[in-house]
Write a structure and sequence with these properties.
Family: Belongs to the glutaredoxin family. CC-type subfamily.
Strand content: 5-15%
CATH topology: Glutaredoxin
Distance between the termini: 34 Å
Pfam family, one: Glutaredoxin
Number of helices: 6
Protein name: Glutaredoxin domain-containing protein
Main location: cytoplasm
InterPro entries: GlrX-like_pln_2, Glutaredoxin, Thioredoxin-like_sf
CATH architecture: 3-Layer(aba) Sandwich
Shape: globular
Structural class: alpha/beta
Length: 140
């Protein structure tokens, strides 16, 4: 076990794969959709505006790549607190449309908090739960 794994176990995070992690796969190329789902895309909507709309519609959202194990760790940490974020899987070209072009990238209340290290940092310093309560993603 390396020091990263030991540190994560110390705060109750485990690394592993979970089935059905992805709530939606974002298709940024314009397609016709008769769906009323917020994960659908309008023909005249750019990838950037689509991502901004998703960020504003979901109190906690994670943008990730399909093979990213750090997203699973982020979800596990949030789930232990009682929050189940929306997870959107992007390909490498779609990642470029993110305000922060790294993945995974988590947003809480419309604000980019960064990746796994930032999320764990918020949790360890005691700032994560108040932020989740403030945006209505967690009830205490």
């Amino acid at each position: 076990m390396n020091s990263t794994e030991e540190g994560m176990q110390g705060i109750g995070i485990g690394i592993g794969c979970f089935q059905n992690d992805v709530v939606g796969q974002l298709e940024l190329s314009p397609t016709m959709s008769n769906s009323s789902s917020s994960l659908s895309m309008e023909l005249d909507e750019s990838p950037e505006s689509r991502i901004q709309r998703l960020i504003s519609e979901h109190p906690v959202i994670i943008f990730t790549r399909s093979s990213c194990c750090m997203c699973h760790v982020m979800k596990k940490l949030l789930a232990t607190i009682g929050v189940h974020p929306t997870v959107i899987e992007l390909d490498d070209q779609e990642i470029a449309a993110l305000p922060d072009t790294s993945a995974p990238s988590a947003f809480i209340g419309g604000t980019c908090i960064g990746g796994l290290e930032s999320l764990v940092g918020l949790h360890v310093t005691g700032h994560l739960i108040p932020k989740l309560v403030q945006v209505g993603a967690l009830w205490v």
